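Quick entry between incubations.
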Amino acid sequence: MLGNFAYCNPTKLYFGEESLQYLNTELPKYGKNVVLVYGGGSIKKNGIYDEVLEILNKNGKNVAEISGVMPNPTLEKLYEGVEIARNHKVDLLLAVGGGSVCDYSKAVSVSVHCDEDPWEKYYLKFEEPDCEIIPVGCVLTMVGTGSEMNAGAVITNHESRMKIGHVFADENIMPRFSILNPKYTLTLPHYQMVSGIYDIFNHICEQYFSGEDDNTSDYISEGLMKSLIHSSRIANKNDQDYEARSNIMWTATWALNTLVAKAKSTDWMVHMLGQAVGAHTDATHGMTLSAVSLPYYRYIMPYGLAKFKRFAVNVWDVDASGKTDEQAALEGLAAMESWMKELGLVMNLSELGATSDMVEEIADSTLVMDGGYKILDHNEIVKILRESL
Amino acid sequence: MLGNFAYCNPTKLYFGEESLQYLNTELPKYGKNVVLVYGGGSIKKNGIYDEVLEILNKNGKNVAEISGVMPNPTLEKLYEGVEIARNHKVDLLLAVGGGSVCDYSKAVSVSVHCDEDPWEKYYLKFEEPDCEIIPVGCVLTMVGTGSEMNAGAVITNHESRMKIGHVFADENIMPRFSILNPKYTLTLPHYQMVSGIYDIFNHICEQYFSGEDDNTSDYISEGLMKSLIHSSRIANKNDQDYEARSNIMWTATWALNTLVAKAKSTDWMVHMLGQAVGAHTDATHGMTLSAVSLPYYRYIMPYGLAKFKRFAVNVWDVDASGKTDEQAALEGLAAMESWMKELGLVMNLSELGATSDMVEEIADSTLVMDGGYKILDHNEIVKILRESL
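Done. Structure below.
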């Protein structure tokens, strides 16, 4: 905790079974023209669409729609949505769905009044918007990405096979409000649930496995990881356990709303590997992360041994007495592996459709980050991907 | 994590050695008339006053002052400040000091445009403001209260011997921005530092020792407590250790900015006891808490045994194997007691000037809260106070 930093996260969260009613509190704050953004239509099956539309109508809103936002929102879809939002003279983008829908809405929000090409400006040059930003509200139906309380937006460009996330610096790009009803997550298939749980866990890891200083953020991360491991085991046995699912939902938000990264460098290499895999296979995000995680962590462990030992002791209750740091650290990763298998996560890339002859290409499109314990070169990435197959 | 709740904390925090310069970023957002609020003048000795005034002048502000805000701000002082702020047609209240100065500024902020008596409205009836609220900014020079990122404001009424804190519901009462420079805390006397550390620790305890459900907030609390214990030991040996002091500063903010109380009932009985003692002795806040804590926790332990056992294991690393829950829980409190003595905290009320014949009167003015493991009656309060003497 030595550096200089700013923290501001103004998103208003409404949490709980009764939270949707607070849409009535928020909507009057914005203009008449709302664009409702959603995915493949599951919200029509489970009734959320009808509930939201009724509230929008009751509040006298003029509603247009962007539907069919895919799990990895594409650049083409972004262009399409920007067009719809412009034509509707949008005052509020209301994202109803999971992280992809929320991410996508933020990408639309900074592009509606942008004169330049958003891919070029935000995803290749990583610039901040200098135009008006359309406010985003969110009704969250799936947990994992933390998108409901951050300024991140991942977009996939199929043409260049690049999946890039931009975490914007401006807190005005964070949703103005997010409605978190754990009940909405109960209809999610088990596979999606555990995939989301691993995504959450890995978000914390990405921020935890970096730095050697003494930092309160790492203690908060350990608390979040312990809560998540605890609740995930309950939810894995009974995915209708509201208490466990509500704790998972809340943990997901705090795992990636900038708090646990404060005054730290961060890693994000597992996400870079996973996103490269995602761009080539369109596999579920959390599973691309679980498949590459252990080969990656075992590879970098020697470069951040003290933190991996601390992880073993503080998160996995490994008894380190009489063990070398390396033994204790490996025992922590073994405990993590058991937990991952217990949840039924995908533990190798082959299961996701990646093949040996795709490795070089995936490695080529993997962005290399420099905040973790080891900056990887091409050969190291290839090695990790091969071990993940 | 079962209930319904809202979370919103829009305070912008600037943290670190370079953070004061961000006053230049914030000041242009507000009108010309600034009231600078501070305490006994230590900021004049250490140069912060001059630095702040220079920035205010550079930004063309018209500055009035409220000085001499005391450690337990009084109602008379509140009336005086409201008068100054009204006459100055205040646009921004800039609190430069510790929690008392920041609390006081918030109390002024909701009173300037209030037609009713603020003591009556906010502290006896616990009403929310229905008038315009003056924005508050804060330059924090002392840590402990968390006032820099919450909507709480404690005021003492000497006439009725009541010290009452109102945590307002409206997030607009939270400081709009707070500047947290750990360097400013390095000049604080050791006694004040450890008193602040215990205040922080107890804030977490007040929110942790309640409820029997499964809640992510408790895991975050455990992380914060572990970080604080760790850093406090370093700072106690060397109070010029910037890293330890910066972690303590950051922990203090997150210990009381509403996060770890979410979806929980909370206790706050140690604060009620301590505040009653404070109103009778004017003793340092943190020390009133440390003096009553262990008699209180040992008394309520049987009513929340599972949580006290968890506290022992997760916070104090007590090995519970082969022990009854009660043995493990008591061992946790004993570890806490050792730590408190190590810091040199005041462990009894006599040292603070409280005498046996004051006990009944202190008990009479102790507000009884109902969120903890046991609702105390008058005799129980008297018993705890006598054990604290």
